[in-house]
């Protein structure tokens, strides 16, 4: 049985020439409620800090607001840049948000790669692996209900989440070490690049553990904008897609040669549509792609990408609503 899902994602970028930040946040809550109502599987929010365009810095806050207006969809936060944060505080945020969502929360932890973020939080990039390991260990123990000491301080988190902590947490990343970390801690895995799921599954087998929740990375396209005419649809999103890709490429450049970002050096707007990371598809285009989708992959829409005016994003979501019965039928027909 092939598991193919739909995801609606929000990073809340708001360049000054795009829609107003306040308008985007109101729309995001309304869109989350709509996505849940039409049967979208996952609503995801992301995290970065100190970005000129206001990239979402507090994903648990937004996820809590979305939890209040949804009933069924999984809420995925990720990737939380764990080395920047106090893991005890993160554990408390997880517990409360999971309770607010009635056990629908998933949280992906990433090691981070943006040097300016680490500087802002007084952390060193060279410590990120150590901070990931100690942070995940602390969070898992705290959310299991343990009272313990770590680094000389007492830890005791209440309330506890509805779900087992291992069922909430995933590790994200683009290197084999991230797959090994997920298997070692007995949590889920959300890779950035192809080939790493196989590493994760093998590491789980070696440790005699059942794998947690995992998905294949969706690189082409990473984001779909549904429209009635692809040329007009692309014209509507082009500036916003260019902004998103360029900003990610700039962050990747901070990491230099060590970067494995799919956006690395992708700064030429003329090639963006051909590369296909962002796509303007008709509903028929979407349905035609179903047989090509890998098991545990997802169709991803970002209805507010790069400050896209909400009225344009709503057009995409309304087309998804119209297409959803045929989409679910097409996926079921693959079984």
| Rg over C-alpha atoms, rounded to the nearest angstrom | 19 Å
Based on DSSP secondary structure assignment, what is the total number of beta strands? Answer: 11
How much β-strand is present in the residues? 15-25%
Structural class: alpha/beta
Largest sheet at a glance? 7 strands, parallel
Question: What is the architecture of the largest domain at the second tier of CATH?
Answer: Alpha-Beta Barrel
**Name of the top-level CATH class of the largest domain:** Alpha Beta
Name the CATH homologous superfamily of the largest domain: Luciferase-like domain
User: How would you write the strand order of the largest sheet?
Assistant: 8-7-4-3-2-1-11
| Count of separate structural domains | 2
* Spans where pLDDT lies below 50 across 5 or more residues: none
Helix tally equals 12
- Helix-strand topology string: EHEHEHEHHEEHEHEHEHHEHEH
CATH topology of the largest domain: TIM Barrel
Query: Helical percent range?
Result: 40-55%
Globally, the shape reads: globular
In round numbers, the mean pLDDT is 94
> How far apart are the first and last residues' alpha carbons, in Å?
5 Å
Structure, explained:
The chain is 46% helix and 16% strand. The N and C termini lie close together (5 Å). The chain has 2 domains: 8-18 and 29-40 and 219-334, no CATH class; 41-216, TIM Barrel (Alpha-Beta Barrel), CATH 3.20.20. The mean pLDDT is 94. It contains 12 helices and 11 strands. The chain is an alpha/beta fold. Helix 2 packs parallel to helix 3, helix 3 crosses helix 5 and helix 7 packs parallel to helix 8. The strands form 3 sheets. The protein has a 7-stranded parallel β-sheet with strand order 8-7-4-3-2-1-11. It has a two-stranded antiparallel sheet with strand order 5-6. The radius of gyration is 19 Å and the shape is globular.
């Amino acid at each position: 049985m092939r598991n193919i899902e739909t995801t609606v994602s929000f990073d809340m970028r708001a360049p000054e020439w795009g829609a107003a930040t306040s308008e985007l946040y109101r729309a995001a809550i309304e869109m989350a409620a709509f996505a849940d109502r039409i049967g979208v599987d996952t609503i995801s929010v992301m995290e970065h800090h100190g970005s000129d365009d206001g990239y979402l810095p507090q994903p648990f806050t937004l996820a809590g607001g979305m939890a209040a207006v949804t009933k069924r969809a999984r809420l995925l936060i990720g990737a939380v840049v764990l080395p920047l944060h106090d893991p005890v505080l993160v554990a408390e945020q997880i517990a409360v948000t999971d309770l607010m969502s009635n056990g629908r929360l998933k949280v992906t932890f990433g090691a981070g790669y943006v040097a300016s973020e680490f500087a802002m939080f007084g952390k060193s990039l060279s410590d990120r692996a150590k901070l990931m390991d100690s942070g995940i260990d602390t969070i898992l123990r705290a959310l299991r209900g343990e009272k313990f000491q770590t680094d000389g301080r007492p830890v005791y988190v209440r309330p506890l989440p509805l779900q087992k902590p291992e069922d909430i947490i995933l590790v994200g990343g683009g290197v084999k070490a991230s797959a090994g970390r997920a298997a070692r801690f007995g949590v889920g895995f959300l890779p950035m690049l192809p080939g790493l799921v196989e590493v994760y599954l093998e590491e789980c087998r070696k440790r005699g553990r059942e794998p947690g929740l995992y998905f294949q990375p969706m690189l082409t396209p990473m984001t779909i904008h549904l429209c009635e005419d692809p040329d007009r649809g692309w014209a509507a999103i082009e500036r916003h897609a260019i902004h998103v890709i360029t900003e990610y490429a700039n962050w990747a450049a901070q990491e230099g040669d060590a970067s494995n970002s799919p956006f690395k050096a992708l700064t030429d707007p003329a090639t963006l549509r051909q590369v296909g990371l962002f796509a303007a598809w008709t509903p028929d285009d979407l349905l035609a792609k179903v047989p090509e989708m890998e098991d545990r992959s997802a169709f991803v829409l970002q209805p507010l990408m790069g400050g896209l005016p909400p009225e344009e994003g709503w057009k995409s979501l309304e087309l998804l609503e119209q297409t959803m019965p045929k989409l679910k039928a097409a996926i079921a027909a693959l079984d």
